[in-house]
Structures are given as C-alpha cells and as structure tokens.
Amino acid sequence: QEKKIFMVQGPYPTIRRLLRARGWVERKPPSTDRQLEHHQGNQKKQQLETQPRDDKEEEEQCDEDPNGIHDLMSYLVRKRVPNFIWTNYLGAVDHKLLGQDHVVNHYARVGAFTTKEGLCLSLQNLPWIEQADPNSFFPRCYLLGTAGEREAFIDDFRLTAARSLLKLALEEAENRLIATQQPPSSNKGPDMCHDSHPTPSTAGPVPLYPHLVEEALEICEQHLDVLGHQDIDRRTPSPCRTCIDWDRFLRDYYCVAHEGAELAPSRVLQQRCQDLLRRLEEQLPQLSMEGKLNVWILKPGAESQGRGIVCATRLEEVLCLARGCTALSVREGKWVVQKYVEQLLTIFGTKFDIRQWFVVTDWKPLTVWFYRDCYLRFCSRPFSLHSLERARHLCNVSVQKLYKTSPDQDPRVPPDRIWSSKQFQAYLAQLGQGDAWHQVMVPSMKAAILNALRSAQDQVGFRKGSFELYGADFLIGEDCQPWLLEINSCPTMSPSSAVTRRLCANVQRDTLRLVLDRKDNPTCSTGAFELIYKE
C-alpha cells in the first residue's frame, strides 16, 4: 500500500541496505535474472578477492538476514511489480509492467552520449543547438568507419603535424640559445627530461630539414585563411591537398619529431613561426593542448573500462589499426580516434584523470544535479609522451590494477592511486593555484556536462519517473582547463580504495535522497548534490 517494494540487480549492497533501512521490501529478481545475477556474482567474487578486508566485510554484512525476515517479506511480494528498480542495464526491466509512479535508474537510448561513438556524433551537432563550440572542451574526435570522417581525420593529422613543426622549430631555437649561454658541460651527456625533444638514435651528424619550416608555414597560412572564412561547420578542407607530397612531408616530420633531426630555422623563420602560432591560437581552442608530437588515441566506439585503447603517433599506424590490422576484437567501422591531450597537468610527474558524478532526474524539462565530491585516478608509471604504454596513459582503475607501481614512480603518488577532490584542492593550494578548482575547473566541468546532454537530448528515450546516475571523466590541461573524455552510464560503485569506499557509499545515499526522499519532502537534504540546471 505504501508502494515500498524494490528490486536491485547487480552488486549494489549499499542501495539494498539503505532501502531496507527505509522500510522497503525487496522483490528478488525472477529466475531468468537470477542466472544473470549468478554470473555477475562470480565476477563480483573475483573483485572481492582483490578488495581490502574492510570492503569485503561491509558487502558481506549488507546481505546478512539472520532472522530470515527479509527473505520472508521478499517471498510475500514475489508477484508484485517493484516500485523502485536499480539495475545494471535497462534491458532487465519489463517496461510493459511499469506505471508512471514506478522509479527506474536508467533512460533508454543514452548511448547518444554514453558511448564514445555517440558522444562524438552528438557533439558535432552542438553548434546548431547551442552557442557553444565542442572544441573548447572536447578533444576533436572522428569515426574512422565513415569515409568522410576518415578523410577529415587525415586532414587534421596533417595540419597538426604542420603546426607541430612550427612549435618544434621554436623549441629547437630556444634550446640552441640556452646551450650557447651555458658553460661547457662535463663529459656527461645532456640531462634531458622525459618529455623533451628526443636525441638522435644513430651516431654521426644530425640530418637537417630547414625546408620543412617553410612548407609548414605555407600550410598553416593557407589553413588560417580557410579558418577565417569557414561557416558553423567545424569540418574544414585541407589546404593544398593536391600540391603537397604529404607522404614525404610526414616522413620528414617523423624524423624531426621522433628521431631527433633538426630544422635549423633562421631568425626570420622563427619570427614568422611565432606570429603565425599566435594568430592560429585565436582560431583554434585546442592549439595549446595538442603539443608537438601529434599523439592520437584510438578507441573502440562502444567499449568501456579501457578495453582496446591504444595511442599512436603515425598516420599509417592509426589507419592500419582502424582497418582491423590488429589482434583486438572490435566490430569493423566502430573505431573512434581522438586527439590526445599532450599538454596536461600532472601530479608528481604522473598522469591522472577525474571521475565526476552527476544525475539527470528529468529530460523534459532537462534537470541536472552535479555532485560536489569527486575523485582522481592516477597511472602507475610516470608520464612520458615517448613511451605510449597503457600504464602511463590510461587512468582507468580496471587498466591500472594490471600493473605494479614502477620503481621510478614518485613515492608521493598514493599507493592505491586514488585521491579525493579535497586532496587535489590542497595540492593546488600548495602550488599557489588554490582558486583554480572553484573558479576554473568546476564551472568548466559543469558547462561541458550540460553541453553534452543538450547535444543528445532529442535522442534519449524519455520516461517520467526514471533517473540516471552518470560518471564523466575529465583530463586537466596545463592551464587548468578540463577536457571531457567520456560519460559513463552505470559508473562502478565497487570501491578500489579507502577514498572510493567512502565516496561511492555517499553518492548512492545522496542519490536515494534525491529521487525518493525529495518526492515526499522537497526541502529535504540532497547531500552533496547541487542543482545546476533546470530547463
């Protein structure tokens, strides 16, 4: 009569415990779903074997029913349709049995922004929907299974190589100037940082490519002219596509960027490079983050947890992988290639990303709640663009758990590779950037999330009474600007550290406050959730 029957499918002991404490009765999943739960239970058992002892005990205690009262009540409501459903995926729910007062934790067709492929396509349409440029918060992205997108990526790769050459020319000139101002060194080799321009791998004189700077300047000047006349469509034609030997140009670029060949630019060319890069920066929001090595990250369009992701620096390598010249099992045509954020903020020389939760409680009108607590995930090895192994570049917990911390890792990186946002704020304060979190990062993350949702709003299957908790992943650039990487439906609630154990429990508690308690009491506490948008 009070409509307090719930069903939980999947490893969510916190949800089950909190609902029981509210006086709700659990309806066990039907037999077909029990088989699925058995499979998920085996997976959960494997996860528990690697969890800290305290986490295991908490999850075991959540399912305790010493007097059998919960099992008895579940038996009595076994034929009733649950009023609240929390499940791993929407397909587990029979929508024909649901009324408007039934609450479900998923919407239909959210792949429009929760898959890499969907988010890439949706954000291409953002300028037609909002006065916002996706290039200001989402690294440019292409679907390699589509001929037009593949050609656009090839154009982008070539143009990025040309811009990189301008930067490399200025870096080389600066290094030469520094070298002339320093006293002669001892017989030790140069003490280069791991992200500096690489030294040649072979003995003998360094090959010179002064003509490349002239060519790169010509390409970038023509591209700048195109940018000055383009319309709202972000796709721009490649300048001089027919009059430049791009294969030779890229081979020479690789020699400079990756093999230590020198450009030897004159002072006049250096000044032209500086002036042109300054003008390009006014037109290209991603110029500062794209770096000099033209690194791209290749992702299966509909996978998660870092599966199948690789980094590449050569055009033929990316196209070969996309054509299936790899052992990875990915559906043909579903590869997404995205510009890697080369100029990123690191902590103790280590790459990290941010997992940021938010909840959508309505799509008509769009209503979005932002969680004020989040956490950072560290890689297990120091950051370097000259070594593209997954342990240095993919922050996913499911990837990093496969690697031990390397001996050259800074000991200040936490052993469990997790920080809370409060720890991050304290770190920023030590750097003298204490205001960056609240004044730059958080407002930009909120804006990126809202733009992603608006771009996909018309494609989502809307249903009153539903809600969904999402996890957005962000990188932070050297200028403290967040870059949205992806948005996950069903973000993991299995704790991998003391920080996530606390935060995952809190976000589940506050989600129930938001979608259940607030119905009866609109003024009740919503915990760390903040309403950031209501259409």
From TrEMBL:
GO terms for biological process: cilium assembly; cilium movement. GO terms for molecular function: ATP binding; protein-glycine ligase activity, initiating. It catalyses: L-glutamyl-[protein] + glycine + ATP = glycyl-L-glutamyl-[protein] + ADP + phosphate + H(+). Residues 23-40 have a biased composition (Basic and acidic residues). The keyword Hydrolase does not apply. It is found in: Cytoplasm, Cytoskeleton, Flagellum axoneme. This is TTLL3 monoglycylase.
